[in-house]
Amino acid sequence: MTVVEIENLTKIYKNTRVLDEITCSFSAGEVSGLEGPNGSGKTMLIRAIAGLIRPTSGFVKVEGHIIGRDRPFPDSIGVLIEGPAFLERKTAYQNLRLLSMVRRVASKEQIYSWLEAVELDPNSRMPYRKFSLGMKQRLGIAAAMFEEPRLLLLDEPTNALDASGVKILQTLIHKAAEKGACVIIASHDAAFLRSVADHVWVMSAGRAVRCVERGDNQ
Ligand SMILES: Nc1ncnc2c1ncn2[C@@H]1O[C@H](COP(=O)(O)OP(=O)(O)OP(=O)(O)O)[C@@H](O)[C@H]1O
Ligand SMILES: [Mg+2]
C-alpha cells in the first residue's frame, strides 16, 4: 500500500532549485533510502514529506491527503531531523513522557521499554544537557519511533552512533517495517542504507535520479 506519493515536487529558494521535479512513492512495510552527497536535497525532501516546508510546485500526498492543503502534517508521523530539540534540564524519560502527553498513545511502560531498546537508562537522573552526542541521537531515535507511527522519517540516523548503536538502529528499523510502517531514511552513508533499505533513491542536485533495488549492483 502506497503511503507517500510525491509528484513533480519542486522547491525553489531565491533562484536555487533545492528540490527539482521529484516524482516517487513509498509504501507501507518498506524501508526506503535517500542517498546522495552533501547538499543534494535529502533533508529538504524529508522536510517536505513531514510538512515542514511547502512546495513551490508539485505535491506530497500522505495516506491520500495533500500535505499543506488537506492536512498541515501527516496524521501519524515520527521524525528525526538533525539536532532534535529536547528540554535540557529534563532526563531521557521525562522528555519522552512530555512528548507522549501530546498524543497519549504511549504508556509509561512503553516509554521505559523504548529507552531500554536504545540502551538509555530509563531510571537515570542525568539531564539531557549532559548527554553525549550519541546519547542525544539515541534519544532522538526513540522519540521518533516510540509512538509507532505509520510514517517514520529518519534523517542521518547513524550520526554520532557507535557500532552497537548502529546495530540497534538496524534492528529497530526492521521491526518498524515488519509492523507495517513506511520508513524513509536519508543518509550519506551508502553502506548503511544498502544494509537496511529495500531500495534506495539516489539524489543529485535536488533530483531523485534513480531508484536502486536491493541486490542491484549499480
Ligand atoms: N533555508 C534554506 N534556504 C535556502 N537554501 C537552503 C536552505 N536550506 C538548505 N538549502 C539548500 O538546499 C540544498 C539541499 O540541502 P539539504 O540540506 O537538503 O542537503 P542534504 O542532501 O541533506 O545534505 P547533507 O548530506 O549535507 O545533509 C543545498 O543546496 C542547501 O544549500
Ligand atoms: Mg541532510
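^ adenosine-5'-triphosphate complex. Residues 134 and 162 are 7 Å apart (CA to CA). The mean pLDDT is 95.
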